[in-house]
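Morning!

This is the sequence you dropped in the shared folder:
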Amino acid sequence: MTILVTGSAGHLGEALMRVLRQQDRDVRGIDIKASEFTDSVGSIVDRDFVRESMAGVDVVLHSATLHKPHVATHSRQEFVDTNITGTLNLLEEAVAAGVDSFIFTSTTSTFGDALRPPSDQPAAWITEDVTPIAKNIYGATKTAAEDLCRLFHRNNGLPCVVLRTSRFFPEDDDEPVRRDSFGRDNLQVCELLYRRVDIADVVDAHLLAIGRAAELGFDKFIISATTPFRRDDLDRLRSDPAGVLDLRVPGWREVFEARGWRMLDEIERVYVNDHARERLGWHPAYDFQRAIHDLGQGCDHRSKLARAIGAKGYHETKYADGIFPVEP
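The structure's back. C-alpha cells below.
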C-alpha cells in the first residue's frame, strides 16, 4: 500500500510522515515547502504536479490547507485555490489513478457561528448533526471541500472519510485576550475539556480511517479529546465550569493551584467525539483527566509526538503580536 500525505511539512503532515515511516509504510510526502518529511515540493493547485504525485498511490491523506491564522495574510481567492481547487485536483486525480480511499483532514472551525450560542443560552453540544454556519473564508472553503468529498463518493464510488479535527497546534492562542489572560500550557490543558486534541490521537484517527474507509464509504467525524462533561452540564458551563469539574474530575483544583493556574470562566461549546469512538473505533489517549494525572505526577501532559514536532508557526514573518498578524 502506497500512501500519499499532502502538507507533509506542516504540523499534522509531519506527524503522519513520522509515524508512517516508523511503521515502515510506503509513504510519500508533498508540500509547497521543502522539509525532512517532504519527498516532492509543489502545490496541490498545480494539476500536473498532483497527477505526477498520484502515480501508484493507494491512499491519500489530505492535510494540506490554508489555516485560520492565514485569513489576515492571504486573499479569499488563495483560500479557494488551495482548499477547494486543490482538493478537487486531488480527488479527480485520485479517481483517475484508481486510488482506494481518500482521507480528508477538515476542522471543527467549519461549525463557525454555530459554536457560540447567545449568552443566555446553554453551552452548545457539538456533534456531527450540527449544521455549519461559516464565519470566515477558512470555514467556508473547508465545508466546500467536505462537500466535494461527499460528491466523489456518491458519483465515483471513492471511499472518503472526513476528519473534523479540533485544535492540536502548540502555538499561543490566536485571540489576544486569551493569550493575555492565560499561560499557554494552562489554556491548552483547559481546552482539552472541550476543543483540543493531541496530535498523536489525530494521527491515530487517520490511520484508523485508512482501514475503515472501504466499509464507511463516506462519513464525517469530530476528532477531539473525550470531554468529561455531560449534556446536563451545559447550562452551568456558561457560568461555572470549575464547579462542574469538581463533580466530573475530582482533584483537578490541587494540580492547577500547584502551578498557579486558573480555570476558564465560561465554556460556550463542547465537541463530542461519540461518533468517532463508536463507528471509527477511535479511542483517544490524551484528555483532560489524563493531563491532570500526568501533571500531578510531574510529567509532561503532551504525547512524545507532540513534543517532537513542537511549534511551527504559520507565517515566515515575525509580527509585533508574535506569530499572528496585527489587524489593520
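Headline: The first helix runs from residue 11 to 22.

More detail when I'm at my desk.
O.
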